[in-house]
Amino acid sequence: MKLFVIRIFSFLFLAALLNSCAPTRAVLPLCYKENTISASLGGPMIQYGKIITPVPYTTITYSRGLTDSTTFFASIHPTAALYGNLQMEIGLNKYLVNNDSAKYAVTVAPTLNILIRDSLRRVYPQIDVNFIKRNPLNENYYYGGICNWFEPATRKINGEKQSNIWFPSPQVGYVWNTKKGLMFQAEFKYLVPFRRNDTGPVDYIKPIIPYGGIGIYFGASYKF
């Protein structure tokens, strides 16, 4: 019985980690006073019967350029809200390196993830670091990096001592820019690769071993 309870709590914690992840917001900082509205769809890959599909979680994000090197963004998750979870993020995206001649950049994005459900109130810090390589022939670009999600609680939901506070998720993606202000994004994440994904009723797709999950996301943005 005790093993069963531990497995259930482990599964719930893994589900919270996987489902809270979203594609990278504001991959490149905007110019001063530029704005974007973004929407994304996707999540961890699961097997539903004979079908393999990403969980259709949604995110809506507003971003604004505070300077030419720093962008503010705020996100909300409509799918989570349908199930009684108020989940949102606020954060900044800033250049660490921006080399126009070599067409590459490095950015950092500190973020606060806010989760509210009934009496539960949690704030999870997150820091994303990405390397961006621009296409020299157009405004499209590749990026790769790591999403670092942190657990501030010292105890798990079942009262046990929290053994891990850092949950990294490597990511790669591509952004298409159009001349009409529209941008399209595709991203692949290897979600929390050291966390077991075979202890609950949901059959997460196993990348190589039964740890973490594969996340696939698609997004669209409008710049104005």
CATH level 3 topology:
Porin
Rounded Rg: 18 Å
The SS-based structural class is mainly beta
What is the tally of helical segments? 2
Write down the secondary-structure element order.
HEEEEHEEEEEEE
Quote the beta fraction.
over 45%
- Characterize the biggest β-sheet: 10 strands, antiparallel, barrel
Second-tier CATH architecture:
Beta Barrel
Q: Return the domain count.
A: 1
Q: Runs with pLDDT <50, length 5+?
A: 1-15
Task: For the record, give the distance between the C-alpha atoms at the N and C termini, rounded to a whole number.
Answer: 56 Å
How are the strands of the biggest sheet laid out side by side?
1-3-4-5-6-7-8-9-10-11
- State the helicity in percent bands: 10-25%
* Strand elements, count: 11
- CATH class bucket: Mainly Beta
Short account of what is shown:
The chain is mainly beta. It has helices spanning 2-20, 78-82; strands spanning 35-48, 51-54, 57-65, 70-76, 86-99, 104-117, 120-134, 141-150, 166-177, 182-196, 211-223. The chain is globular and about 50 Å long.
Draw up the topology in text.
Elements: H1 2-20, E1 35-48, E2 51-54, E3 57-65, E4 70-76, H2 78-82, E5 86-99, E6 104-117, E7 120-134, E8 141-150, E9 166-177, E10 182-196, E11 211-223
Antiparallel strand pairs: 1-2, 1-3, 1-11, 3-4, 4-5, 5-6, 6-7, 7-8, 8-9, 9-10, 10-11
What does this structure look like?
A hairpin with a 4-residue loop joins strand 3 (57-65) and strand 4. This protein is mainly β. The protein has helices spanning 2-20, 78-82, and strands at 35-48, 51-54, 57-65, 70-76, 86-99, 104-117, 120-134, 141-150, 166-177, 182-196, 211-223. Mean pLDDT is 83; it is low at 1-15. The chain has one domain (2-223): Porin (Beta Barrel), CATH 2.40.160.
